[in-house]
Amino acid sequence: EIVMTQSPATLSVSPGERVTLSCRASQSVNSNLAWYQQKLGQPPRLLIYGASTRATGLPARFSDSGSGTEFTLTISGLQSEDSAVYYCQQYNTWPFTFGPGTKVEIE
Amino acid sequence: EVQLVESGGGLVNPGGSLRLSCAASGLTFNNAWMSWVRQAPGKGLEWVGRFKSKTDGGTIDYTAPVKGRFTISRDDSKNTLYLQMNNLKIEDTAVYYCMTGGDHWGQGTLVTVSS
Fold it and tell me: Rounded to whole angstroms, what are the CA distances from B21 to A52, B73, B81, B108?
């Protein structure tokens, strides 16, 4: 099973700042990596998948990079509604696995 | 608009059984790969299993914690996905989500395993 790790576990930032979330896979997942945002009491929302394919309607402040085992999600110009937990997930090899998440808090 | 609506959750004793349903609309269900994903209270997301569309082989895959206890099935004539859960354990307590394509999720149904 491919183990996904994310760092940091929690991030506390001010509105307008830029944040970078990291995700690492225990073995290569090629570009088969997705990022989700989950707010309290809601199902996850797909943000980005594959070779940086953006979900419909995703604000331009969200971007990603990486392939293989190292990935990053960047939020430029953080807004209050971005407060959430962000998960990475690999879908290269079954069983598909999620990272433990990074909680982004707005100061 | 794609809608996925889960039902069937509730409180069950350890060792008991429960069947969840996921009613789908707004998509060509028989072509969709459908999955169950769960989330224990205050914890992260965990895949339970997936059911490929029949046109793509119709195979079903499970994750290790549920293999041999959970069974995923689908009725394409009813646009419905099922999750039969047997021999439930306390650690199966979670919100169970039905999902397809990564971008369509239901609101989830809570399963609580407790005596």
Answer: 33, 10, 6, 10
- pLDDT band of residue A51 (cuts 50, 70, 90) is low
Tell me the pLDDT tens digit for each residue of B19-70.
Answer: 999 999 999 999 999 999 999 999 999 999 999 998 999 999 999 999 999 9
B110 to chain A: nearest residue by CA?
A41
At A52-93, the pLDDT tens digits run 899 999 999 999 999 999 999 999 999 999 999 999 999 999
Please report residues of B whose CB lies closer than 8 A to that of A101: 44-45
Contact of B102 with chain A, judged by CB distance below 8 Å, is answered with yes
Closest CA to B103 of A34, A90, A101, A104: A34
Collapse the DSSP code of B41 into the 3-class scheme (helix H, G, I; strand E, B; otherwise coil) and give the result. Answer: coil
Q: Give the distance between the most distant pair of CA atoms in chain A.
A: 38
